[in-house]
Design the sequence.
């Protein structure tokens, strides 16, 4: 679960989302489709980062992972994305080596063991052919 926060015409608002596809509903419900000054996706309350409207649309389409969002993987079921890396090599260098068998044309989900039955997961972007 994460929060989506926005700023439009000097006013701020926020709403709770359970998955990336909920973002589209938030934009419709709050009349944000015409545009918004800044969008922040928050996981918890401390890991916020600004996103452009185009990035939000990519997240809704499943093309962009959001830190703090839950993803269903065949191997580990529902996992939370704790990091997002620009490439698989960067994720492997940070210790995320366990495959989850997640299938996407845009990113991979990899796991990192923290010890006795504890893991964290990261998304690694795939190279896109232009």
Sequence:
């Amino acid at each position: 679960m994460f929060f989506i926060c926005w700023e439009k015409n000097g006013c701020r608002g926020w709403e709770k989302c359970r998955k990336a596809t909920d973002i589209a509903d938030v934009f419709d419900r709050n009349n944000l489709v015409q545009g918004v000054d800044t969008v922040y996706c928050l996981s918890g309350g401390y890991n916020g980062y600004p996103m452009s409207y185009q990035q939000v649309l990519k997240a809704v389409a499943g093309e962009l992972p959001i830190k703090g969002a839950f993803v269903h993987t065949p191997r580990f079921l529902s996992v939370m994305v704790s990091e997002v890396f620009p490439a698989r090599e960067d994720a492997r260098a940070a210790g995320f080596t366990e495959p989850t068998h997640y299938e996407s044309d845009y990113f991979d989900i990899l796991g990192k063991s923290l010890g006795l039955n504890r893991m964290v997961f990261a998304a690694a972007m795939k190279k896109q052919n232009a």
Q: What stands out?
A: The radius of gyration is 15 Å. Residues 70-125 form one domain. The chain has a mean pLDDT of 83. The longest strand covers residues 77-85.
